[in-house]
Design a protein that fits this description.
By secondary structure, the protein is of the alpha+beta class. The protein has 17 helices and 22 strands. The strands form six sheets. It has a ten-stranded mixed sheet with strand order 6-5-4-3-7-1-10-11-2-12, sandwiched between helices. A four-stranded antiparallel sheet has the order 13-16-17-18, with helices on one face. Strands 8-9 form a two-stranded antiparallel ribbon. A hairpin with a 2-residue loop joins strand 16 and strand 17. Its EC number is 3.1.6.1.
């Protein structure tokens, strides 16, 4: 059959009359792709939409190597899919991160910035209008059945679950506060039913059963489906109501609780002894710079906490294995995209910090992000800069839905043929409010943890820049300082005037980074994807190296700087400092106002 065109092959197979095709397009399409599309078509119409399964863990790290301890994730996802190694969250806290994930918008555009009211949680999600306007609703409108089980948002409780019910799901079974993080006494709420507290039962075993049941229903529906599965592992075990952060002393934090069958594993595991593990010299600014070196009691506690995280993740690993077995048994594996990620990262002893998140360090903002599905490279590792803001546009693209104008992100190139697609270099990271130590020795709150930051990665540059609400600054060159131990911003101990980046003096680089952050901290829509175009409307600057030309020095010296007027626990505009950026033209500088 060598040399035959697709039409000839189909005639030979006796199916040409049964399968609609276009000679102008299909002669150019590989046979296996064409036949696959047609075999899954519906009633001879257009090819059926692909299924999507989205697995979202809670507080899972990538920098402490948690994936190395998950053999089924390795087998089904890492070996058969692509790991996006430069994937970041844009807010290192679960509820704001999840709202951004499901809306494709930064927290400064959702104004859901906390885990509880008045600045966050499920009530804030509802009051902002997102219950009628987020991913599952959009997918249903596009013809998908939608399912979900596990944690959705904080402050989604046994008291407010029906005021209103979450919209957009064909079937759902949510974890609810105040038992969301109680591994052995979780509360689940199915569809419109009343909540049930599963006393003495492990949340992961319950979740596995619920996820499998929903997947069976989704497959039986014979419609394209979206299934979200959100295990609480490896989050801390929490007993008590965390809805009032000011009453945190009444809440008991402890280590994650693994399933009985996993509690003996990894007895020798310890937090990786990387250079930023409990360093001799404090790093960071604000309250982080004041943290004392951890004593042996804390080190031992943190190693145990780390082991408990790994053990708790074994239940998630079993869940992953079961999902893939079901897909394969039902002939749906090749027609399904499977995503695996976390709502934020985590630190344990890095930078002298006890267990927690909420900071802008790599440990907290860089998370696992793995995709397997049709056309996705097996065993691939992508260096593309991607974020949770990009997830909704990516799912839209897979589902064949036109992108929304209010998306702040850009669809992620999943297929191997797209891996060389040029993308932006930047990540906008923002945070408001508190940080908290977790674990059985934890519970301490640190206020004024509000900051804006910029992560920027390109050829020969790898930088982190931040401005805190007390107007302290951080600048790390991760090319020479991958563990972020030397803050080289002027005025700090590790600053060195002789240091250059991309051949430019630090002052020139900082001017550009600060202006880029000024745009990103208030950006909307396409400006968030192409912030340099806001600064340089002529289009002659597309990246940091372009902007470093000395010709632009006078322009950047005139630019407003990122600063706060005061520290606040939420997004309050009059505390946020300058909002507008100057734009450069060949004829000089002019103001452009945008909101």
């Amino acid at each position: 059959m060598k040399g035959l065109k697709l039409r000839d092959i189909l005639l030979y197979a006796g199916v040409a009359g049964a399968i609609p095709w276009s000679s102008a397009q299909d002669d150019q399409k590989p046979l296996n792709e064409f036949l696959s599309d047609q075999m899954i078509s519906s009633k001879g119409g257009s090819p059926q939409k692909r299924n999507i399964i989205f697995i979202l863990t809670d507080d899972q790290d990538i920098e402490m190597n948690s994936l190395d301890y998950m053999p089924f994730v390795q087998k089904h996802l890492l070996d058969k899919g692509t790991l996006f190694r430069n994937h970041f969250v844009t807010t290192a806290l679960c509820c704001p991160s999840r709202v951004s994930l499901w809306t494709g918008r930064h927290s400064h555009n959702t104004n859901v910035t906390d885990v509880n009211p008045p600045y966050g949680g499920y009530p804030k999600f509802v009051s902002q209008g997102f219950n009628e306007n987020f991913l599952p609703v959009w997918l249903q409108q596009a013809g998908y059945n939608t399912y979900y089980t596990g944690k959705l948002f904080n402050a989604h409780t046994t008291k407010n679950y029906n005021s209103p019910h979450v919209k957009g799901f064909t079937a759902s079974d949510f974890l609810l506060d105040p038992w969301t993080y109680n591994y052995l006494n979780p509360a689940y709420q199915r569809n419109q039913d009343a909540p049930i507290i599963y006393k003495g039962q492990h949340t992961l075993d319950i979740l596995i059963d619920k996820a499998n049941s929903l997947l069976d229903d989704a497959i039986a529906s014979e419609k394209p489906f979206f299934l979200g599965i959100a295990p609480v592992a490896p989050h801390s075990n929490v007993e008590g109501d965390i809805s009032d952060i000011n009453d945190i002393d009444k809440v008991k934090f402890s280590e994650p609780v693994p399933l009985k069958r996993h509690e003996h594993l990894f007895s020798d595991a310890k937090v990786p002894r990387t250079p930023h593990f409990n360093p001799d010299k404090p790093s960071g600014v604000n309250w982080i710079a004041e943290r004392p070196k951890l004593n042996q009691t804390w080190i031992d506690h943190n190693d145990y906490y780390y082991r408990q995280r790994l053990r708790a993740l074994q239940g998630v690993d079993e869940l992953v294995d079961g999902i893939f077995k079901r897909l394969e048994e039902n002939g749906q594996l090749e027609n399904t995209y499977i995503f695996y990620t976390a709502d934020n990262g985590f630190h344990v002893s890095q930078h002298r910090l006890n267990p927690g998140k909420e900071c802008g360090f790599e440990d907290d903002i860089r998370v696992p992000f793995i995709v397997r599905g049709p056309g996705v490279a097996a065993g691939g590792i992508s260096k593309a800069v991607t974020t949770h803001i990009d997830v909704a546009p990516t799912i839209f693209e897979l589902a064949g839905i036109p992108l929304r104008e209010d998306f702040d992100g850009l669809a992620i190139p999943l297929e191997k043929s797209q891996q060389n697609t040029k993308r932006h270099e930047h990540v906008n990271v923002e945070y408001w409010g508190f940080a908290v130590e977790e674990g059985s020795l934890g519970g301490t709150l640190f206020w004024n943890n509000t900051y804006k930051s910029l992560r920027i990665i390109g050829e020969n540059y790898n930088l982190y820049y931040s401005v805190w609400c007390n107007n302290e600054h951080q600048l790390y060159d991760l090319t020479t300082d991958p563990y972020q131990l030397r803050n080289i911003f002027p005025g700090y101990e590790d600053h060195d005037e002789s240091v250059t980046i991309l051949g430019a003096p630090l002052t020139r680089v900082i001017d550009r980074l600060d202006s880029l952050l000024l745009v990103l901290k208030s950006c909307k829509g396409t400006v968030c994807v192409k912030p340099w175009q806001k600064l340089h409307p002529n289009g002659d600057v597309q990246s940091l190296p372009d902007a470093l030309l000395s010709d632009f020095d006078a322009f950047y010296e005139q630019q407003e700087t990122v600063r706060f007027d005061r520290c606040e626990a939420g997004y309050i505009l009059d505390a946020e400092g300058p909002q507008d950026a100057l734009s450069y033209t060949r004829h000089g500088v002019h103001w452009t106002h945008w909101v």
